[in-house]
Amino acid sequence: MADHLAASSAYFQSLPQARYEGPDSDNDFAYRYYDKNQMVMGKTMEEQLRLSVCFWHTFCWDGSDVFGAGGFNRPWHQIDDPRTAAVAKREAAFDLFQRLDLPFYSFHDVDVMAPAETAQDHIGHMHEAVDHLETLMANSGRKLLWGTANNFSHPRYMAGASTNPDPEIAAFAGLQVREALNATHRLGGSNYVLWGGREGYDTILNTNIGQELDQLGKFLTLVVEHKHKIGFTGDILIEPKPHEPTKHQYDSTVQTVHAFLQRYGLEKEVRVNIEANHATLAGLSFEHEVDMAFALDIFGSLDLNRGDPQNGWDTDQFPNDLREITLMMKSILAAGGMKNGGLNFDAKVRRQSISAEDIAQSHIGAVDLIARALLNAEAMINDGRIDQFKRQRYAGWDKGIGAKMLNGQVNLDEIADFAVAKNQAPAPVSGRQEWLENVVTQLVK
Ligand code: XUL
Ligand code: CO
């Protein structure tokens, strides 16, 4: 065991410190574009991007999939005593955060603590973990982007957490959320996330949908009340996903989440954490979900992992599509930038990428991609052609009959009378999609 402990602390030590070396660097561990101090639209890159490493894929996953065992053999997984193993994992994690020099991290309760079956043990092990995290954060200067409770992995949640037919299971979920929210508050987290992995159904034959929606709405109301009770000033975020592991998940898209929040009077209290691959699974683009969240004023934060175009499941891959991420970054910059949110890598290396170097290089490559996307987005805003075209396209609504319609100053008869008085068919105008796509191609570098 002493060997595994020593190996855990040494696991990332062979990796050099990642730092900015510019586009001409030939160092695989250097940033070519992410210069954390470079100013972009009034903030440093570090402040604009608020990049975050996740605990679960990076330090908890052992490489297993539904067909086979894991081959990562991380040393902290070889330690027999679960509480010592949790200490070793947390220490290795903070070593990596510093080697990558990324400012934030994110966790589920069960990622950072020793496993617990009973409520008492859950509380005890979680407090032990939070004490340690507090020290590690103070010593390293790293910050918490968000915390969450894993209310989907344990078999007790197979029929849901707050949407479970058994209220005692919902109460256990309540315990986990209270502890995770208290921990997030204590650690100065910017957000608290709820992803309802089992809050849906596998078949309607055994599911009372109306009842489950009310349970979910009530549970979320209690979470919001608790946030105010303890004085947590970060945002509560729901992470939409249409399905997987359930056949259907209630929080399926940004728009369905918004409608749900409105139904339970929570639309001013809860925002969304949008994940790229979840948008793909819903048959939507990442930019669509981001723009929709801004349009509905519920944008919160982002999980940046992509899917695979040939696979219909959540592959959680690091982003590599510069065009897609540029358009997404442009929406964020245009809306005034991140507030409490950030860019979280809810992403994992492939099962064959078994080394510490793979973990480092997956992050370094994705960070550089995002930095390039940020610079492209700035160029796109300064270029102005796309925004100018969009403004021009809707200019008719600023005056005359358009403004009256929007402001509710005319009824349907008056609109119809206006059309009759005009006495001519309105002329169609080109939407210029190809030209707009050409502009994007010119600016994505
Ligand atoms: C699952 C997923 C989760 C959430 C946090 O698809 O994205 O990891 O981000 O529970
Ligand atoms: Co996610």
Structure in words:
The chain has 445 residues and is of the alpha/beta class. The chain has 2 domains: 2-383, Divalent-metal-dependent TIM barrel enzymes (TIM Barrel, Alpha-Beta Barrel); 388-443, no CATH class. It has helices spanning 2-10, 45-49, 55-60, 82-100, 109-112, 119-140, 167-186, 209-230, 254-263, 276-281, 286-295, 322-334, 356-383, 385-393, 400-406, 412-422, 433-443, and strands at 39-40, 43-44, 51-54, 104-108, 143-148, 191-194, 200-201, 235-238, 248-249, 270-275, 299-303, 343-345. The strands form 3 sheets. The chain has an 8-stranded parallel beta barrel with strand order 3-4-5-6-8-10-11-12, surrounded by 4 helices. A two-stranded antiparallel sheet has the order 1-2. It has a two-stranded antiparallel sheet with strand order 7-9. Helix 7 links the parallel strand 5 (143-148) and strand 6. The protein binds D-xylulose and cobalt (II) ion. Cobalt (II) ion binds at residues 239, 275, 303, 346. The site of D-xylulose has 10 residues, from loops.
Question: TL;DR of this structure?
Answer:
This protein has 445 residues and is an alpha/beta fold. The protein has helices spanning 2-10, 45-49, 55-60, 82-100, 109-112, 119-140, 167-186, 209-230, 254-263, 276-281, 286-295, 322-334, 356-383, 385-393, 400-406, 412-422, 433-443, and strands spanning 39-40, 43-44, 51-54, 104-108, 143-148, 191-194, 200-201, 235-238, 248-249, 270-275, 299-303, 343-345. It has two domains: 2-383, Divalent-metal-dependent TIM barrel enzymes (TIM Barrel), CATH 3.20.20; 388-443, no CATH class.
